[in-house]
Amino acid sequence: MGSMHGFRCDPMERVRVGVCGIGQRGIEAIRRLSNIPGLVVTAIADIEQRGLDAGNAKLEKMGKPRSHAFLGPESFRPVADDPEVDLVYVTAPTPIHFRAAVYALEAGRHCAVELPCATTIEECWQLVETAERTRRHLIPLAKKPDVPPGDTDGDIDIHWSHCLMNGLPMDADVYDAATWSCLTELSEKSVSAGSAPLEVPDFTRGRWKDAE
Ligand SMILES: NC(=O)c1ccc[n+]([C@@H]2O[C@H](COP(=O)([O-])OP(=O)(O)OC[C@H]3O[C@@H](n4cnc5c(N)ncnc54)[C@H](O)[C@@H]3O)[C@@H](O)[C@H]2O)c1
Fold it and tell me: Is any atom of ligand 1 closer than 6 Å to the C-beta of 47?
């Protein structure tokens, strides 16, 4: 399977986003995304009707069209299957992140996910394998250290949407997502071993050198 290093898709004139988990982060995401030219929130999902109501109320208040609304614990599935969604944006609680991300990639959607994107090293490898096989972007919603300070969340959204709309490689990709997310299990193992140093897996399988 080809590396996702430097991977680029055909430029997209606009990006239709489905937001999963309309709590504090989800509402803020709807506001930010709706202010970026070329982005449109076309679907929302939550386990609570009040989350869906709040999401569509936010869109209406901003003068945007109401989105498709999906209710339930597996509502990330109809969002990813919605033909009017290009990218699934996951702001649901952590236990949902990995399953929603894999489902979105398998459905042919790009996916942006809050950290941690997965909770075990095995899941991190599965994210890498799925992104490489489906050739879809997995975008961790975190800032790389070399990006200048500013409105962190807004900057991240502007960066990935610019890359998608211009057919450019992502600033942060699935390998970054896996590397950041594997720290949970590594930290637990290190603490159990008396704070022993542990090696961080190379999720690129050495192919980071090709990008030099
Ligand atoms: N709030 C922060 O400062 C912060 C910072 C960094 C990362 N995060 C990440 O963002 C996630 C969300 O944070 P938040 O503060 O918005 O939490 P929140 O509790 O305010 O919102 C979570 C929303 O997800 C919904 N939800 C729960 N299960 C769902 C499911 N199966 N499918 C769809 N929706 C579901 C809930 O009903 C709720 O509306 C956190 O779990 C974390 O992973 C949050």
Answer: yes
